[in-house]
Design brief:
By secondary structure, the protein is mainly beta. 7% of the residues lie in helices and 35% in strands. The protein is built from 2 helices and 13 strands, in the order E-H-E-E-E-E-E-E-E-H-E-E-E-E-E. Strands 2, 4, 5, 7, 9 and 11 form a 6-stranded antiparallel beta sheet that branches. Strands 1, 3, 8, 10 and 13 form a 5-stranded antiparallel beta sheet that branches. It starts with a strand and ends in a 37-residue tail after the last strand.
């Protein structure tokens, strides 16, 4: 696999192989594209359940908080929330992507994905961010701020079963808002 350069990323965008919408070409870095924080955050309500059962839907465990242009969301030390990119992303069959944090934010203790930084070929939608504050102080998150970066890698051959295909049962295709875990769907008869 090889990582796409800025020149190749822009060529892929112009051909329609990669979709990033909206896109400001100033966000294209040498081997990645900066992504921005959207205005909705899913906050976990710890008072509703004594624990998380991975076999159960978690729809009632989170609450949407909408932030405006000027008021930040405050992420407290040790807190975990779900956010989303402002950008809609689409990938073709021959590319995968990696979502990474911005190093300047990482140096403040902000982690933007705990485990899910891999974006499969065929993906379409906004990326859900798994935000954690590892520092000892609260961190402000503003709508529209640069929150992470996405890089693209070329596969040895195009994938034959794309994310979103019926046989894969992809759970998050087309999401536009931060989306809670749907892991419970892996358990038959428990939906």
């Amino acid at each position: 696999m090889s990582v796409l350069s800025d020149k190749t990323i822009l060529e892929c965008i112009k051909r329609g192989d990669i979709v990033i919408s909206p896109l400001d070409e100033d966000d294209v870095q040498p081997a990645s594209v900066d992504l921005h924080f959207d205005n909705k955050v899913l906050v976990f309500s710890n008072s509703l359940r004594p624990y998380i059962d991975v076999r159960d839907s978690l729809e009632d465990l989170t609450e949407v908080v909408q932030i405006d242009e000027n008021t930040p969301f405050i992420l407290h030390p040790g807190e975990f929330v779900l956010g989303s990119t402002s950008e809609h992303i689409e990938l073709p069959a021959h590319l995968v992507a990696r979502l990474e944090g911005k190093s300047s934010l990482g140096r403040l203790g902000l982690v933007i994905h705990s485990t899910a930084g891999f974006v499969d070929p065929g993906w379409k939608g906004h990326l859900t961010l798994e935000l954690s504050n590892l520092s000892n102080l609260p961190i402000t998150l503003f709508h529209g701020m640069k929150i992470g970066q996405i890089s693209f890698l070329e596969l040895t051959t195009p994938a034959t079963r794309l994310y979103g295909s019926k046989e894969l049962g992809s759970k998050y295709q087309g999401q536009s808002d931060p989306t809670p875990s749907k892991y419970y769907e892996n358990y038959s008869g428990r939906q």
